[in-house]
Structure formats: C-alpha cells, structure tokens
Write a structure and sequence with these properties.
523 residues; mainly alpha; Growth Hormone, Chain: A; 2 domains; two-stranded antiparallel sheet; 18 helices; 68% helix; globular
C-alpha cells in the first residue's frame, strides 16, 4: 500500500497553495510525466556511475601486475586514491557549469570523459612502456567523469518539491548502492573469460577478465548518453517554492540572486558531517579484509568470500533502509533521523573496540632480514606497512601467506581479539547508520540551500565526500599496522560522536530555507 501511494505521489501533478485560496494546478499531467521521466534518467545515471566505479575495483591489482611488472602496492594505492581525487576536483567544476548552462551539457561531457577513460583503461596494455601511468591516468579520468554526481543531485533537488525530495534522494542512494553491489557481481561473472581471453590484432584489443568490465562500463556510458539525449528535459520546481516564500512575506522580493539568504553556517556544518560520514565508511570498507585475516586467521579466499557476503548483505540492508526512509521521513523529522544515524554508526565502531583476555593467533614467520627474532626483539619498521598493503589486497594469492596476525604488527601480541559476533554486529549497525546519514545529510543540505541554483554547493558536498574517501584509506594504512584496531577505531568513535554533538549544537540551524525565511520575516 505504501509503495503504491509513493507511485501515486509521483504521478500526481504539483499543486500551488496560497493562504485563503483554493489550490491551483501548476503543471499538466504531461509535464509531470516528463519531469519524473527526467528524474528517473538521473537515477540511472547514478546507477551506471556506481557500476563504473565498482566493476573493476577487485581486478585492478592483478591487471596492474599484468601490464607493468614495475608496479608495487604503493602505486596501487595511488591508482585507487586518484579516482576520488578526480571526482573531488570535477564535482565542483561540473556543479558550477550546471548553474549557468543547461545540465545536459555537463552530464554528456562528463560521461564522454568516462567512456574515453574506460577505453584507455582497456588499452593500458598497448603502450610499449610506462603502462602503469596509463592506468593511473585512466582511473583519474574515470573519477573526473564521476564528478557529474553533483549535477545529478542538484538537478533532482531542483526538480522536486520539498514533499517529494526525501523520496527522490532516497531513490538516488538506492540506485547508487545497487550499482556498488552489482558491479563486483558483474566482475565476478566475467572471470569466466579468463586472464588471456580474446585478442583482435587489427585493433590491438585484448578482451579478458580485466578489460571486459572496463569496456562494459564504456558501453553503459554510451547508453546513458542516449537516454539523456532522448528523455532528459530541464525542469525546475524550486521556482514554485520561491513563489511560496514570496507569498508569505506579501511582496515580490526575489531571493534567487542573494547569497546572504543562505545560512552558510548550516552549509559548512553539512559539509563537515558529510566528510565524517564518508571518512568513517571508507575506513570500514578498507579495513575489512586485513582485519578479519588478522583476527580469525582466515585465508585470503576465506576473507574475500566471507567479507564479500557480509558487504553484499550490508548493501541489501542499505537499499531496504533507503526505501524505509521514504516513508519514515513523513513521520520523523530529518534532523532526528540524521542524529539517530550517527548514533548507530558510533555504536557500530564502538562495538569493534577489542576487549577480554583472548588474543588473535600470531603468524610467527621470519622477518625479511631472515632472523627468528623473539617477540621482545621485534620492532616496527616500514615492512609492516608493506605487509599490511599486501594483506589488504584480496587478489594477490593470499593463501600462499601464513595465516594469522603478522609478527611485524607488535600490537597483535597484547591487543585482545575482536570476536566474530562483534564484527558481524558492527556490519549490521553501520549498514543501517551509514545510509541513513548519507541520504539525510544531502537531502537536508538541499533543503537548506532552498530555491537558489545548487550546482556549486552540491559540488562542494560531493568534493568533501571524495576527499574523505581519499584520506580514509591513507589513515588506515598508516595507523592500523602500527597501532592496531584500538587506535584505528577509537579516533573514529570520537569523530562520529563529535558529529552527533555538532548536529545537536546546530539543530536549530539545520532547517529548510523556506522555514528559516518565514521565521526571519516574522521577527
């Protein structure tokens, strides 16, 4: 019944309500259909973008080794991080572009960049030398093309009314989550092609398990462009919200061109919250494989399989949460749900703090210098970071490595184990809290911005999330092998708790533009 009601809401043309007067229709049924058709094209754009990111992630390292033997795990870190760096830069540029030109332009150009970058990735084997740099360049431009996320969010924010926005933003997040789930599944399905695959000498094309996902990403990009050209149309509902604000104050003062009408404190607060959300989640997804291998002596295959199942389950859980938000938002205020999401994330990371008197199994292997040192003689050196980098990559033939917590990580000898029940419980809690916080943060952000064009502001929000996804893995790579889970999860608990406190302190400022403007006019 609730799903049917939501569908009816999308089919119902918008009404404009003035105090003391009957409601008047502001769009025809045909305009309503065109508006929602365009919004659904944006859903697909987000879905395709997520698939383009996740479809090659698990095969980057073996492909990098295949095309360039000089590449090491340090360079792999750059290849992974450069995607987020590219997105961080592009999101602001594309967001600004969408403010002054039709959104179709930055959308099509960004997707064309993405298509070209995927083709370059598929041909990274072709140059006679420096192949790893071509892979780096390809992933940078894939990330740059993904900067259109800011355009997608700003368009949906402008093409929906306040009543429709929570539902539309939840749908965007659900499509993004579905893409992250489906991408690795498609990659796994393409492993049947094999590492050699098919070779067409005429065009120097190698179609194998590493390049096929990239070419599929390029094909989806072309399909996306066709859909945008054929179905996407510009619609702006925020003009109606501006009209409501004008009617409330009883004059024709225009608000669109005034930056002073936007609460910049609330805007900065939302960007900080968004950064913390993505920083925490980036750490969680980065640490999953090495943590479980250290704590439970899982082999590489076991860690990839079990964590894969858990993360897929968390993805399905996230989609269910996104759908629930569409209905809960009609009964619970956005700020309250956002605060509840941060509390769930805090509890999820707090649960991961080790306690008790049981310790992880130690991997008593020889160090690189060939000496059988006792635990008292073992000291941390940079080989621990290198060992962690190897363990954190699920496709390196990890079963050839001794299982257990590496002896180079001295904390293994005095830090209690994180029990499996703790880990599973943490996955469940974070799997609920993260989607709640992510969708509510940028939904509330769009409401705070109000009728003003949101491209640049959405660009900054996307950039803050991309920056967090860049810094999060770096933090884990430096802290976890040196100091262990306590010093990894402890600061994250502090950051998330600080975010919850920030929501409480700024609670009165985190309100929609129309509500704030009406309040100011009454003062």
């Amino acid at each position: 019944m609730e799903t049917a009601q939501a569908e009816d809401d999308e089919r119902r043309p918008l009404l404009h309500v003035e105090p003391g007067r009957e409601a008047t229709l502001v769009e025809t049924l045909q305009e309503n259909r065109s508006r929602w058709r365009s919004i659904r094209v944006m859903y697909l754009t987000m879905f395709f973008s997520s698939i383009g990111f996740s479809i090659v992630v698990s095969s980057i390292w073996p492909f990098l080794q295949k095309v360039d033997k000089t590449a090491d795990t340090s360079f792999l870190g750059w290849i992974i991080a450069v995607y987020s760096l590219g997105q961080m830069i592009a999101s602001v540029l594309f967001g600004a572009w969408s403010n002054y030109r039709p959104r179709r332009e930055p959308l099509i150009i960004s997707i064309l960049i993405n298509v070209a970058a995927n083709i370059l990735y598929g041909y990274a084997h072709a140059p006679p030398s420096h192949n790893k740099y071509y892979m780096l360049l390809a992933r940078a431009f894939v990330g740059f093309g993904a900067g259109n996320v800011a355009v997608v969010r700003s368009y949906v924010a402008g093409a929906t009314s306040l009543e429709e926005r929570n539902s539309a933003m939840a749908n965007i997040s659900a499509c993004q989550a579905l893409g992250f789930i489906l991408g690795p599944a498609l990659q796994a399905a393409m492993t049947s092609i094999g590492p050699t695959g098919i070779f067409w000498k005429i065009i120097n094309l190698q179609l194998n398990m590493y390049t096929a996902p990239a070419f599929l990403g390029a094909f989806l990009g072309i399909l996306n462009i066709i859909l945008i050209i054929a179905l996407f149309r510009e619609h702006c509902v925020t003009d109606l919200e501006r009209a409501k604000s004008i009617n409330v104050q009883g004059n024709s003062e225009t608000l669109e061109n005034s930056d002073g009408d936007i609460d910049l404190v609330a805007v900065v607060t939302c960007n900080i919250l968004f950064f913390i959300i993505f920083f925490a989640f980036a750490i969680f997804e980065t640490i999953a494989t090495p943590l479980t291998m250290d704590m439970y002596a899982w082999t590489g295959k076991q860690a990839v399989l079990y964590n894969g199942l858990l993360l897929v389950g968390a993805g399905v859980e996230s989609i269910a949460v996104f759908m629930a938000i569409k209905f809960l938002s009609k009964r619970i205020e956005d700020r309250q749900m956002l605060l509840g999401g941060f509390i769930l994330i805090f509890v999820g990371f707090f649960v991961l703090l080790p306690w008790g008197n049981q310790y992880p199994p130690i991997q008593w292997t020889e160090l690189k210098n060939g000496s059988n040192s006792s635990s008292a003689e073992i000291k941390y050196d940079e080989s621990s970071i290198a060992a962690w980098n190897v363990l954190s990559q699920p496709s390196l033939g990890l079963d050839a490595i001794a299982v257990g917590c590496p002896v180079q990580q001295v904390w293994c000898q005095y830090t209690p184990i994180i029990h499996l029940a703790q880990y599973i419980g943490s996955v469940i809690l974070i799997g609920i809290g993260y989607p709640v916080c992510s969708v509510l943060s940028y939904t509330l952000y769009s409401k705070i911005l109000g009728p003003k064009p949101q491209g640049i502001y959405m660009g900054w929000l996307t950039a803050s999330g991309s920056g967090a996804r860049t810094l999060g893995p770096t933090f884990v790579g430096q802290v976890y092998p040196r100091y262990g889970p306590r010093w990894t999860f402890g600061p994250i608990c502090g950051m998330v708790m600080a975010a919850a406190i920030l929501v409480g302190l700024m609670y009165k400022k985190l309100i929609g533009f129309s509500i704030r403007y009406q309040t100011l006019q009454q003062c």
